[in-house]
Automatic annotation (TrEMBL):
<feature type="binding site">
    <location>
        <position position="229"/>
    </location>
    <ligand>
        <name>NAD(+)</name>
    </ligand>
</feature>
<dbReference type="Pfam" id="PF00208">
    <property type="entry name" value="ELFV_dehydrog"/>
</dbReference>
<dbReference type="InterPro" id="IPR033524">
    <property type="entry name" value="Glu/Leu/Phe/Val_DH_AS"/>
</dbReference>
<feature type="binding site">
    <location>
        <position position="357"/>
    </location>
    <ligand>
        <name>substrate</name>
    </ligand>
</feature>
<dbReference type="GO" id="GO:0004352">
    <property type="term" value="F:glutamate dehydrogenase (NAD+) activity"/>
</dbReference>
<dbReference type="GO" id="GO:0000166">
    <property type="term" value="F:nucleotide binding"/>
</dbReference>
<comment type="similarity">
    <text>Belongs to the Glu/Leu/Phe/Val dehydrogenases family.</text>
</comment>
<feature type="binding site">
    <location>
        <position position="198"/>
    </location>
    <ligand>
        <name>NAD(+)</name>
    </ligand>
</feature>
<feature type="binding site">
    <location>
        <position position="99"/>
    </location>
    <ligand>
        <name>substrate</name>
    </ligand>
</feature>
<keyword id="KW-0547">Nucleotide-binding</keyword>
<dbReference type="Pfam" id="PF02812">
    <property type="entry name" value="ELFV_dehydrog_N"/>
</dbReference>
<dbReference type="InterPro" id="IPR006097">
    <property type="entry name" value="Glu/Leu/Phe/Val/Trp_DH_dimer"/>
</dbReference>
<keyword id="KW-0520">NAD</keyword>
<feature type="domain" description="Glutamate/phenylalanine/leucine/valine/L-tryptophan dehydrogenase C-terminal">
    <location>
        <begin position="191"/>
        <end position="421"/>
    </location>
</feature>
<feature type="active site" description="Proton donor">
    <location>
        <position position="111"/>
    </location>
</feature>
<feature type="binding site">
    <location>
        <position position="70"/>
    </location>
    <ligand>
        <name>substrate</name>
    </ligand>
</feature>
<keyword id="KW-0560">Oxidoreductase</keyword>
Protein backbone atom coordinates (compact mmCIF):
# COMPACT_ATOMS: atom_id res chain seq x y z
CA UNK A 1 0.00 0.00 0.00
CA UNK A 2 1.24 3.50 -0.81
CA UNK A 3 1.28 5.45 2.47
CA UNK A 4 2.83 8.82 1.66
CA UNK A 5 2.25 10.02 -1.84
CA UNK A 6 4.96 12.32 -3.17
CA UNK A 7 3.19 12.47 -6.51
CA UNK A 8 0.03 13.83 -4.88
CA UNK A 9 2.24 16.50 -3.33
CA UNK A 10 3.77 17.37 -6.73
CA UNK A 11 0.28 17.52 -8.26
CA UNK A 12 -0.89 19.85 -5.50
CA UNK A 13 2.00 22.20 -6.26
CA UNK A 14 1.06 22.27 -9.94
CA UNK A 15 -2.55 23.07 -9.03
CA UNK A 16 -1.40 25.86 -6.67
CA UNK A 17 0.70 27.34 -9.47
CA UNK A 18 -2.30 27.12 -11.83
CA UNK A 19 -4.37 29.01 -9.23
CA UNK A 20 -1.76 31.81 -9.18
CA UNK A 21 -1.76 31.92 -12.98
CA UNK A 22 -5.56 31.78 -13.26
CA UNK A 23 -5.46 28.51 -15.23
CA UNK A 24 -8.90 26.95 -14.75
CA UNK A 25 -8.91 24.38 -17.57
CA UNK A 26 -8.98 20.99 -15.83
CA UNK A 27 -7.53 19.25 -18.86
CA UNK A 28 -4.54 21.56 -18.95
CA UNK A 29 -4.02 21.13 -15.21
CA UNK A 30 -3.98 17.36 -15.64
CA UNK A 31 -1.68 17.65 -18.63
CA UNK A 32 0.79 19.65 -16.53
CA UNK A 33 0.64 17.31 -13.54
CA UNK A 34 0.75 13.83 -15.06
CA UNK A 35 3.94 12.43 -16.66
CA UNK A 36 3.82 11.83 -20.42
CA UNK A 37 5.16 8.33 -19.93
CA UNK A 38 6.18 6.05 -17.06
CA UNK A 39 8.11 3.00 -18.15
CA UNK A 40 8.42 0.14 -15.68
CA UNK A 41 10.90 -2.57 -16.58
CA UNK A 42 11.92 -5.97 -15.29
CA UNK A 43 15.69 -6.48 -15.21
CA UNK A 44 16.92 -10.09 -14.86
CA UNK A 45 20.49 -10.29 -13.57
CA UNK A 46 22.73 -13.34 -13.32
CA UNK A 47 24.24 -13.02 -9.83
CA UNK A 48 27.79 -14.09 -8.99
CA UNK A 49 26.48 -17.33 -7.44
CA UNK A 50 24.80 -18.29 -10.73
CA UNK A 51 21.24 -17.58 -9.61
CA UNK A 52 18.94 -15.18 -11.44
CA UNK A 53 17.54 -12.23 -9.57
CA UNK A 54 14.83 -9.95 -10.92
CA UNK A 55 15.00 -6.19 -10.29
CA UNK A 56 12.41 -3.51 -11.09
CA UNK A 57 13.38 -0.24 -12.77
CA UNK A 58 11.55 2.90 -13.82
CA UNK A 59 11.88 5.88 -16.09
CA UNK A 60 9.32 8.62 -15.72
CA UNK A 61 9.18 11.19 -18.52
CA UNK A 62 7.11 14.04 -17.21
CA UNK A 63 7.17 16.82 -19.80
CA UNK A 64 9.24 17.61 -22.89
CA UNK A 65 7.49 20.70 -24.23
CA UNK A 66 10.63 22.79 -23.71
CA UNK A 67 13.19 20.13 -24.71
CA UNK A 68 14.34 16.55 -24.06
CA UNK A 69 13.57 15.00 -20.68
CA UNK A 70 16.35 15.43 -18.11
CA UNK A 71 16.81 13.91 -14.68
CA UNK A 72 18.66 11.49 -12.49
CA UNK A 73 18.73 7.74 -12.10
CA UNK A 74 18.72 6.58 -8.51
CA UNK A 75 19.43 3.18 -7.00
CA UNK A 76 17.24 3.17 -3.95
CA UNK A 77 14.77 1.06 -2.01
CA UNK A 78 12.35 3.41 -0.24
CA UNK A 79 10.39 1.99 2.68
CA UNK A 80 7.10 2.08 0.78
CA UNK A 81 8.41 -0.51 -1.70
CA UNK A 82 8.30 -0.67 -5.48
CA UNK A 83 4.87 1.00 -5.81
CA UNK A 84 6.01 3.90 -3.68
CA UNK A 85 9.17 4.25 -5.74
CA UNK A 86 7.10 4.57 -8.90
CA UNK A 87 5.12 7.47 -7.37
CA UNK A 88 8.37 8.99 -6.13
CA UNK A 89 10.07 9.03 -9.54
CA UNK A 90 6.88 10.46 -11.06
CA UNK A 91 6.99 13.31 -8.54
CA UNK A 92 10.72 13.83 -8.98
CA UNK A 93 10.31 13.96 -12.77
CA UNK A 94 7.67 16.66 -12.32
CA UNK A 95 10.02 18.72 -10.13
CA UNK A 96 12.72 18.37 -12.80
CA UNK A 97 10.39 19.93 -15.37
CA UNK A 98 9.90 22.98 -13.14
CA UNK A 99 13.58 23.15 -12.17
CA UNK A 100 14.70 23.26 -15.82
CA UNK A 101 12.02 25.82 -16.66
CA UNK A 102 12.88 28.19 -13.81
CA UNK A 103 16.51 28.53 -14.94
CA UNK A 104 15.29 28.62 -18.54
CA UNK A 105 17.31 25.73 -19.93
CA UNK A 106 15.76 24.00 -22.95
CA UNK A 107 15.07 20.68 -21.24
CA UNK A 108 12.10 18.92 -19.71
CA UNK A 109 11.69 16.71 -16.67
CA UNK A 110 12.54 13.06 -16.19
CA UNK A 111 13.59 10.74 -13.38
CA UNK A 112 14.20 7.07 -12.97
CA UNK A 113 15.88 4.39 -11.03
CA UNK A 114 16.09 0.82 -9.89
CA UNK A 115 14.57 -0.54 -6.69
CA UNK A 116 17.84 -1.62 -5.12
CA UNK A 117 20.22 -0.42 -2.46
CA UNK A 118 23.74 -1.28 -3.61
CA UNK A 119 25.02 -0.89 -0.03
CA UNK A 120 22.55 -2.96 1.99
CA UNK A 121 21.88 -5.43 -0.85
CA UNK A 122 25.64 -6.05 -0.95
CA UNK A 123 25.92 -6.28 -4.74
CA UNK A 124 29.42 -6.91 -6.08
CA UNK A 125 30.82 -4.46 -8.63
CA UNK A 126 30.28 -7.04 -11.38
CA UNK A 127 26.62 -7.61 -10.36
CA UNK A 128 26.04 -3.89 -10.19
CA UNK A 129 27.50 -3.43 -13.66
CA UNK A 130 25.27 -6.19 -15.10
CA UNK A 131 22.27 -4.56 -13.42
CA UNK A 132 23.19 -1.11 -14.77
CA UNK A 133 23.76 -2.39 -18.30
CA UNK A 134 20.53 -4.44 -18.11
CA UNK A 135 18.61 -1.33 -17.10
CA UNK A 136 20.29 0.72 -19.85
CA UNK A 137 19.25 -1.95 -22.37
CA UNK A 138 15.62 -1.83 -21.17
CA UNK A 139 15.35 1.97 -21.35
CA UNK A 140 17.60 2.42 -24.40
CA UNK A 141 14.69 3.01 -26.75
CA UNK A 142 13.33 5.94 -24.82
CA UNK A 143 16.61 7.72 -24.00
CA UNK A 144 18.95 9.58 -26.34
CA UNK A 145 20.57 13.01 -26.69
CA UNK A 146 17.44 14.46 -28.28
CA UNK A 147 14.97 12.38 -26.26
CA UNK A 148 15.86 11.90 -22.63
CA UNK A 149 19.21 12.53 -20.94
CA UNK A 150 19.66 10.82 -17.56
CA UNK A 151 22.20 11.82 -14.87
CA UNK A 152 23.48 10.50 -11.51
CA UNK A 153 21.30 10.62 -8.42
CA UNK A 154 21.16 8.73 -5.11
CA UNK A 155 23.81 5.94 -5.09
CA UNK A 156 24.77 6.35 -8.75
CA UNK A 157 27.97 7.98 -9.96
CA UNK A 158 30.04 8.71 -13.05
CA UNK A 159 30.81 4.99 -13.21
CA UNK A 160 27.17 4.02 -13.79
CA UNK A 161 26.75 6.92 -16.24
CA UNK A 162 29.70 5.61 -18.27
CA UNK A 163 28.23 2.08 -18.31
CA UNK A 164 24.84 3.38 -19.47
CA UNK A 165 26.48 5.48 -22.20
CA UNK A 166 28.61 2.54 -23.34
CA UNK A 167 25.60 0.19 -23.48
CA UNK A 168 23.60 2.76 -25.43
CA UNK A 169 26.50 3.27 -27.86
CA UNK A 170 26.93 -0.48 -28.45
CA UNK A 171 23.19 -0.89 -29.07
CA UNK A 172 23.38 1.88 -31.68
CA UNK A 173 26.13 0.40 -33.82
CA UNK A 174 29.04 1.59 -31.69
CA UNK A 175 28.26 5.21 -32.34
CA UNK A 176 29.88 7.70 -29.90
CA UNK A 177 27.06 9.51 -28.11
CA UNK A 178 28.36 11.22 -24.98
CA UNK A 179 25.27 13.47 -24.94
CA UNK A 180 23.00 10.55 -24.02
CA UNK A 181 23.83 11.03 -20.35
CA UNK A 182 25.48 13.62 -18.08
CA UNK A 183 27.47 13.44 -14.86
CA UNK A 184 30.19 11.50 -16.65
CA UNK A 185 33.81 11.55 -15.53
CA UNK A 186 35.89 14.23 -17.29
CA UNK A 187 37.69 11.56 -19.34
CA UNK A 188 34.31 10.38 -20.70
CA UNK A 189 33.09 13.85 -21.74
CA UNK A 190 32.05 15.23 -18.38
CA UNK A 191 32.08 18.96 -17.68
CA UNK A 192 34.37 21.04 -15.55
CA UNK A 193 32.64 22.65 -12.55
CA UNK A 194 30.14 19.78 -12.09
CA UNK A 195 31.51 18.95 -8.63
CA UNK A 196 31.02 22.50 -7.31
CA UNK A 197 27.89 23.27 -9.38
CA UNK A 198 25.17 22.98 -6.75
CA UNK A 199 27.01 24.89 -4.02
CA UNK A 200 28.15 27.57 -6.44
CA UNK A 201 24.59 27.96 -7.71
CA UNK A 202 23.37 28.36 -4.11
CA UNK A 203 25.95 31.13 -3.58
CA UNK A 204 24.88 32.95 -6.77
CA UNK A 205 21.24 32.82 -5.61
CA UNK A 206 22.18 34.13 -2.17
CA UNK A 207 24.15 36.97 -3.74
CA UNK A 208 21.06 38.02 -5.74
CA UNK A 209 18.78 37.63 -2.72
CA UNK A 210 21.15 39.78 -0.64
CA UNK A 211 21.03 42.50 -3.30
CA UNK A 212 17.23 42.30 -3.30
CA UNK A 213 16.94 42.85 0.46
CA UNK A 214 20.00 45.15 0.62
CA UNK A 215 22.01 42.81 2.80
CA UNK A 216 25.75 43.35 2.67
CA UNK A 217 27.46 39.98 2.21
CA UNK A 218 30.69 41.35 3.70
CA UNK A 219 30.64 39.93 7.20
CA UNK A 220 27.22 38.29 6.73
CA UNK A 221 26.74 35.30 9.05
CA UNK A 222 26.04 31.91 7.51
CA UNK A 223 24.65 28.71 9.08
CA UNK A 224 25.07 25.47 7.14
CA UNK A 225 23.01 22.38 7.90
CA UNK A 226 24.98 19.47 6.49
CA UNK A 227 28.57 19.48 5.39
CA UNK A 228 28.51 17.47 2.16
CA UNK A 229 28.83 18.37 -1.50
CA UNK A 230 26.07 20.99 -1.75
CA UNK A 231 26.63 22.75 1.58
CA UNK A 232 30.45 22.86 1.73
CA UNK A 233 30.75 24.44 -1.72
CA UNK A 234 27.88 26.82 -0.87
CA UNK A 235 29.85 27.76 2.27
CA UNK A 236 33.12 28.15 0.39
CA UNK A 237 31.69 30.41 -2.30
CA UNK A 238 29.73 32.48 0.21
CA UNK A 239 32.98 32.89 2.11
CA UNK A 240 34.63 34.14 -1.10
CA UNK A 241 31.82 36.70 -1.30
CA UNK A 242 32.75 37.96 2.17
CA UNK A 243 30.46 35.98 4.49
CA UNK A 244 31.52 33.80 7.39
CA UNK A 245 30.24 30.46 8.63
CA UNK A 246 29.19 30.62 12.31
CA UNK A 247 27.43 27.26 12.75
CA UNK A 248 27.47 23.96 10.91
CA UNK A 249 26.30 20.36 11.26
CA UNK A 250 26.74 16.87 9.88
CA UNK A 251 25.20 13.48 10.64
CA UNK A 252 27.12 13.36 13.97
CA UNK A 253 25.76 16.66 15.32
CA UNK A 254 25.72 20.46 15.18
CA UNK A 255 28.20 23.06 16.37
CA UNK A 256 28.22 26.79 16.86
CA UNK A 257 31.42 28.73 16.25
CA UNK A 258 30.61 32.27 17.43
CA UNK A 259 33.79 33.78 15.95
CA UNK A 260 33.33 31.95 12.67
CA UNK A 261 35.52 29.36 10.99
CA UNK A 262 37.04 28.94 7.56
CA UNK A 263 35.27 26.23 5.55
CA UNK A 264 38.68 24.82 4.55
CA UNK A 265 39.62 24.42 8.25
CA UNK A 266 36.29 22.73 9.02
CA UNK A 267 36.81 20.38 6.07
CA UNK A 268 40.34 19.59 7.20
CA UNK A 269 39.04 18.79 10.69
CA UNK A 270 36.17 16.65 9.36
CA UNK A 271 38.53 14.73 7.07
CA UNK A 272 40.80 13.98 10.04
CA UNK A 273 38.16 13.14 12.65
CA UNK A 274 35.10 12.11 10.63
CA UNK A 275 32.92 15.00 11.84
CA UNK A 276 32.81 18.75 12.39
CA UNK A 277 31.79 18.07 16.00
CA UNK A 278 34.67 18.92 18.35
CA UNK A 279 36.11 21.62 16.07
CA UNK A 280 38.42 23.83 18.21
CA UNK A 281 36.59 26.85 19.65
CA UNK A 282 33.14 25.42 18.88
CA UNK A 283 30.23 24.47 21.13
CA UNK A 284 27.94 21.51 20.51
CA UNK A 285 24.30 22.53 19.96
CA UNK A 286 21.05 20.78 19.02
CA UNK A 287 19.62 20.67 15.48
CA UNK A 288 16.88 23.05 16.55
CA UNK A 289 19.44 25.47 17.98
CA UNK A 290 21.43 25.27 14.76
CA UNK A 291 18.44 26.09 12.57
CA UNK A 292 17.29 28.93 14.83
CA UNK A 293 20.75 30.51 15.28
CA UNK A 294 20.70 34.27 14.75
CA UNK A 295 22.32 34.72 11.36
CA UNK A 296 21.85 36.35 7.97
CA UNK A 297 21.81 33.27 5.74
CA UNK A 298 20.53 29.82 6.65
CA UNK A 299 21.47 27.04 4.22
CA UNK A 300 19.55 23.82 4.94
CA UNK A 301 21.76 21.58 2.85
CA UNK A 302 21.33 18.04 4.14
CA UNK A 303 17.88 16.54 4.52
CA UNK A 304 14.21 17.03 3.76
CA UNK A 305 11.54 18.03 6.33
CA UNK A 306 13.81 20.01 8.66
CA UNK A 307 11.96 23.30 9.13
CA UNK A 308 8.55 22.70 10.70
CA UNK A 309 6.07 25.27 12.03
CA UNK A 310 7.73 25.41 15.46
CA UNK A 311 11.19 25.99 14.06
CA UNK A 312 9.81 28.50 11.57
CA UNK A 313 8.40 30.55 14.47
CA UNK A 314 11.87 30.75 15.99
CA UNK A 315 13.94 31.38 12.87
CA UNK A 316 16.29 34.36 13.17
CA UNK A 317 17.72 34.62 9.67
CA UNK A 318 17.08 36.95 6.72
CA UNK A 319 17.54 34.51 3.85
CA UNK A 320 16.93 30.76 3.60
CA UNK A 321 18.72 29.12 0.68
CA UNK A 322 17.36 25.59 0.24
CA UNK A 323 20.39 23.67 -1.00
CA UNK A 324 18.70 20.39 0.00
CA UNK A 325 15.54 19.12 -1.64
CA UNK A 326 12.40 19.74 0.41
CA UNK A 327 13.93 20.95 3.71
CA UNK A 328 10.85 23.04 4.59
CA UNK A 329 7.48 21.56 5.47
CA UNK A 330 4.44 23.20 3.83
CA UNK A 331 3.13 24.18 7.32
CA UNK A 332 6.21 26.41 7.78
CA UNK A 333 5.88 28.41 4.56
CA UNK A 334 3.17 30.89 5.63
CA UNK A 335 4.98 31.54 8.93
CA UNK A 336 8.27 32.23 7.16
CA UNK A 337 6.52 34.51 4.66
CA UNK A 338 4.89 36.47 7.48
CA UNK A 339 8.29 36.89 9.13
CA UNK A 340 9.53 38.43 5.85
CA UNK A 341 12.37 35.93 5.54
CA UNK A 342 13.33 35.57 1.89
CA UNK A 343 13.25 31.90 0.85
CA UNK A 344 15.16 30.71 -2.19
CA UNK A 345 13.20 27.51 -2.87
CA UNK A 346 14.98 24.27 -3.61
CA UNK A 347 14.06 24.05 -7.30
CA UNK A 348 15.87 27.35 -7.81
CA UNK A 349 18.57 27.27 -5.09
CA UNK A 350 19.97 23.85 -6.01
CA UNK A 351 19.52 24.13 -9.79
CA UNK A 352 23.26 24.68 -10.36
CA UNK A 353 23.65 20.92 -10.80
CA UNK A 354 21.16 20.65 -13.64
CA UNK A 355 22.51 23.84 -15.23
CA UNK A 356 25.96 22.28 -15.50
CA UNK A 357 24.44 19.00 -16.66
CA UNK A 358 22.79 20.97 -19.44
CA UNK A 359 26.14 22.58 -20.29
CA UNK A 360 27.79 19.14 -20.31
CA UNK A 361 25.19 17.99 -22.85
CA UNK A 362 25.77 21.12 -24.98
CA UNK A 363 29.55 20.51 -24.96
CA UNK A 364 29.02 16.84 -25.87
CA UNK A 365 26.71 17.73 -28.73
CA UNK A 366 29.11 20.25 -30.24
CA UNK A 367 32.25 18.24 -29.45
CA UNK A 368 33.97 21.31 -28.00
CA UNK A 369 34.79 21.79 -24.34
CA UNK A 370 34.79 24.93 -22.21
CA UNK A 371 37.05 25.99 -19.35
CA UNK A 372 35.86 25.98 -15.73
CA UNK A 373 35.26 29.74 -15.83
CA UNK A 374 33.33 29.57 -19.08
CA UNK A 375 31.00 26.91 -17.67
CA UNK A 376 30.60 28.68 -14.31
CA UNK A 377 29.87 32.03 -16.00
CA UNK A 378 27.18 30.52 -18.22
CA UNK A 379 25.58 28.86 -15.20
CA UNK A 380 25.73 32.15 -13.31
CA UNK A 381 23.75 33.80 -16.10
CA UNK A 382 20.95 31.21 -15.95
CA UNK A 383 20.68 31.15 -12.16
CA UNK A 384 20.88 34.90 -11.68
CA UNK A 385 18.13 35.43 -14.22
CA UNK A 386 16.07 32.63 -12.66
CA UNK A 387 16.25 34.36 -9.28
CA UNK A 388 15.40 37.80 -10.67
CA UNK A 389 12.44 36.48 -12.66
CA UNK A 390 11.06 34.56 -9.67
CA UNK A 391 11.55 37.54 -7.34
CA UNK A 392 9.71 39.80 -9.79
CA UNK A 393 6.87 37.24 -9.97
CA UNK A 394 6.66 37.11 -6.15
CA UNK A 395 6.42 40.90 -5.95
CA UNK A 396 3.91 41.11 -8.78
CA UNK A 397 1.50 38.63 -7.19
CA UNK A 398 2.48 39.44 -3.57
CA UNK A 399 3.15 35.76 -2.90
CA UNK A 400 6.02 33.83 -1.36
CA UNK A 401 9.02 32.83 -3.44
CA UNK A 402 8.11 29.14 -3.44
CA UNK A 403 4.74 29.70 -5.09
CA UNK A 404 6.20 32.38 -7.37
CA UNK A 405 8.97 30.09 -8.56
CA UNK A 406 6.55 27.27 -9.34
CA UNK A 407 4.08 29.62 -11.04
CA UNK A 408 6.81 31.07 -13.23
CA UNK A 409 8.09 27.63 -14.17
CA UNK A 410 4.58 26.38 -14.97
CA UNK A 411 3.86 29.49 -17.06
CA UNK A 412 6.97 28.80 -19.17
CA UNK A 413 5.88 25.22 -19.87
CA UNK A 414 2.34 26.38 -20.69
CA UNK A 415 3.80 28.90 -23.14
CA UNK A 416 5.72 26.15 -24.94
CA UNK A 417 2.69 23.86 -24.90
CA UNK A 418 0.54 26.59 -26.43
CA UNK A 419 3.08 27.18 -29.18
CA UNK A 420 3.09 23.51 -30.17
CA UNK A 421 -0.52 22.61 -29.56
CA UNK A 422 -1.73 19.03 -29.39
CA UNK A 423 -0.70 16.56 -32.07
CA UNK A 424 -2.17 14.45 -33.63
P1 LIG B 1 26.17 14.60 0.60
O1 LIG B 1 25.96 13.17 0.84
O2 LIG B 1 27.41 15.06 -0.08
O3 LIG B 1 26.09 15.40 1.98
C1 LIG B 1 25.06 15.25 2.90
C2 LIG B 1 25.52 15.87 4.21
O4 LIG B 1 24.43 15.84 5.12
C3 LIG B 1 26.68 15.14 4.90
O5 LIG B 1 27.59 16.09 5.38
C4 LIG B 1 26.01 14.45 6.08
O6 LIG B 1 26.88 14.31 7.17
C5 LIG B 1 24.92 15.44 6.39
N1 LIG B 1 23.86 14.88 7.21
C6 LIG B 1 23.30 13.65 7.16
N2 LIG B 1 22.39 13.52 8.14
C7 LIG B 1 22.37 14.70 8.80
C8 LIG B 1 21.64 15.20 9.90
N3 LIG B 1 20.74 14.46 10.53
N4 LIG B 1 21.89 16.47 10.31
C9 LIG B 1 22.78 17.23 9.68
N5 LIG B 1 23.52 16.83 8.64
C10 LIG B 1 23.30 15.57 8.21
O7 LIG B 1 24.87 15.10 -0.18
P2 LIG B 1 24.68 16.34 -1.14
O8 LIG B 1 24.94 15.92 -2.52
O9 LIG B 1 25.38 17.52 -0.58
O10 LIG B 1 23.10 16.54 -1.02
C11 LIG B 1 22.51 17.21 0.07
C12 LIG B 1 21.14 17.68 -0.33
O11 LIG B 1 21.26 18.51 -1.47
C13 LIG B 1 20.15 16.57 -0.71
O12 LIG B 1 18.87 16.97 -0.35
C14 LIG B 1 20.26 16.54 -2.22
O13 LIG B 1 19.09 16.02 -2.83
C15 LIG B 1 20.42 18.02 -2.50
N6 LIG B 1 20.98 18.27 -3.83
C16 LIG B 1 22.28 17.97 -4.10
C17 LIG B 1 22.77 18.20 -5.37
C18 LIG B 1 24.21 17.89 -5.72
O14 LIG B 1 24.59 18.15 -6.88
N7 LIG B 1 25.02 17.42 -4.79
C19 LIG B 1 21.93 18.73 -6.37
C20 LIG B 1 20.62 19.04 -6.06
C21 LIG B 1 20.15 18.80 -4.77
Amino acid sequence: MVKLDPFANATQQVNDACDVLGIKDRGLREYLAIPNKVLRVKIPVKMDNGQIRIFTGFRSQHNNDRGPYKGGIRYFNPEGGVEYMEREVMALSSWMTWKCAIVDIPLGGGKGGIFVNPKTDKLSDAELERLTRGFAFKISEIIGPGKDIPAPDVYTTGREMTQIMDTYNKLHGNISTPGVITGKPLSMGGSLARNVATGLGVAYCVREAAKAIKLNLKGAKVVLQGFGNASTFAGEYLEKMGSKVIAVSDSKGSISIPNGAKVSKLLEFKTKTGSVVGFPGSKKISTEELLTTKCDILVPGALENQINAKIAQNLKCKIIAEAANGPTLPEADPIIFKKKILVIPDILANSGGVCISYLEWVQNNMGYYWTFDEVANKMEGNITKGFKDAYAMANKHKIDMRRATMALAVSRVVEAFNQKGIWP
